[in-house]
């Protein structure tokens, strides 16, 4: 029994060293890659800021033009001039 527990302990220790080695290898390769490719975090922040600014302009434009557009629409809908069509022929 004691041998089994010792094997389990060794196995866990080896797993820990393997994961730490894998993390160190990953950091060795990812740091230069980020430096070479640049940071995508800054571009994402810039895109988000630009999106917020554009949405604010669109909303301000909507609020400023809403009354004028609605009044023009109502004026056109309610401005009725009943007349016969040029191709209408009276039968009789």
What would the keywords be for this entry?
92 residues, mainly alpha, 2 domains, 2 helices, elongated
Can you walk through the features of this model?
The protein has 92 residues and is mostly helical. It has two domains: 1-38; 40-77. Helix content is 82%, strand content 0%. The protein contains two helices and no strands. The chain has helices at residues 2-37, 40-78. The longest helix is centred in the middle third of the chain and has 39 residues, at 40-78. The mean pLDDT is 80.
What is this structure's SSE topology?
Blueprint: H1 2-37, H2 40-78
Number of strands: 0
Which structural class do the helices and strands define?
A: mainly alpha
- In whole angstroms, the N-to-C terminal distance is 115 Å
Element string (H = helix, E = strand)? HH
The helix fraction, in percent, is: over 70%
User: Can you tell me the overall shape?
Assistant: elongated
As a whole number of angstroms, the C-alpha radius of gyration is 36 Å
Low-pLDDT regions? none
How many domain units?
A: 2
Average pLDDT confidence is 80
Helical stretch count?
2
Main sheet?
Answer: none
Beta content comes to: under 5%
Could you give a quick summary of the protein structure above?
It is built from two helices and no strands. The chain is mainly alpha-helical and 92 residues long. The chain has two domains: 1-38; 40-77.
């Amino acid at each position: 029994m004691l041998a089994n527990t010792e094997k389990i302990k060794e196995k866990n220790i080896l797993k820990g060293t393997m994961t730490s080695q894998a993390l160190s290898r990953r950091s060795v390769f990812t740091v230069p890659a980020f430096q070479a490719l640049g940071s995508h975090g800054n571009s994402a922040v810039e895109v988000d800021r630009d999106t917020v600014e554009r949405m604010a302009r669109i909303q301000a434009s909507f609020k400023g033009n809403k009354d004028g557009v609605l009044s023009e629409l109502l004026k056109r809908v309610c401005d009725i001039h009943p007349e016969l069509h040029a191709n209408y022929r009276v039968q009789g």
